[in-house]
Amino acid sequence: MTEFARAVVFTAPETFEIQDIPIAEVGPDDMFVAVELGGVDGSELHMFKGELPWFNSRAPIVFGDEIVGRVHSIGMAAAARRGLAVGDRVTIEARWPCNDCRYCASGQYYLCSRNVDGRGYGTITAREMPSLWGGYATHVYVPKEALVYAVPEDLPAKTALVACSTLANGLTWSGVAGAGAGKVIAIIGPGPQGIGCALASVQAGAQVIVIGLAKDRERLAFVERYGAKTLAIAEGESHIDLAKRIRHVFGEIDAVIEAAGYQPAKDLALELVRPTGTIVHVSIPTPIEQPLDWMKMLFKEITLRCPVSHPNMVPTAIALAHDMFKNGVDIGEFISHVFPLERAEDAIHAASYRGDEVPIKVALDPQMRV
Ligand SMILES: [Zn+2]
């Protein structure tokens, strides 16, 4: 008898449909994973609203590229190669390497030159069999090439989900910023990614200050519990005055992680970072083009870095989250809101921080009923 998955399918801009999609017979090299929890990202709102024409043309699409679940069915060869069996707990990375281009060879498979159209979870059309290419569903398909990592049984699903996405990004990006003992790192923008960077920078031994707006107060209070200092600023305050004020308290800032995406954040980052320091740009910029004072970049001898995602970092992130969990610190509490599949649109709006609520991070639970 054919089994069916339930999936949230993007069929056109601003349109999600819940569809029953057959779970195909598993091939020898493949598997299907039953999703425990799928992450929702604020940036998915742009996709949902139809702002990306190349994306619209791929509809129908099952969204979702942050996935924690259990092996539902697995081919013989996949089971042998991956050392996995039905029921094992796993997380699957959004993209996978071709292992045949210079970027994959160097470890940055998010820039794979054979994957120029961004194939991966949440972006492959559901017209391509077996259709289940996203985490907004009860089940996802896992091809031979996909990167799959074991998740400890005692780690809550929320904790694993934060580890494989937000914390993995934070570890990668704070590493690029040079976070470590004796370093002072400023992070602008206390969204999930900024909070992940703060947590990772604190863990690396850096002194960390997270800068947000007055409306971010709850998020700033949250990140203080993880050992970061915070500063709530008024919108419109001059970046020059602000930078002076921050330096007066914290001294020279070795690196600034710009996780807000707005022009004032760029201006503040450039003013705040010390000469020969590093600015790490990790935000989705709004608007996409923003001027930068290149003269100041030159005369402060600034290094500008733009790391993409978190290649090869998920196992480290899961191990760190597991250690912290065993020591009584559960980063699963980053996930403040969980929605059923039927409310995927509400989940995206919540995650994009545009509703009335102030979530930290949002997830979909396919087993949750409306
Ligand atoms: Zn490649």
UniProtKB/TrEMBL annotation:
Cofactor(s) this protein requires: Zn(2+)
Limits of the Alcohol dehydrogenase-like N-terminal domain: 27-148
Domain Alcohol dehydrogenase-like C-terminal as annotated: residue spans: 197-320
Any Pfam family the entry gives: ADH_N
Alphabetized InterPro entries for the sequence: ADH-like_C, ADH-like_N, GroES-like_sf, NAD(P)-bd_dom_sf
Keyword Acyltransferase attributed: no
Molecular function in Gene Ontology: metal ion binding; oxidoreductase activity
UniProtKB keywords: Metal-binding, Oxidoreductase, Zinc
Domain of life: Bacteria
Keyword set includes Zinc: yes
UniProt record similarity statement: Belongs to the zinc-containing alcohol dehydrogenase family.
Name of the protein: Alcohol dehydrogenase
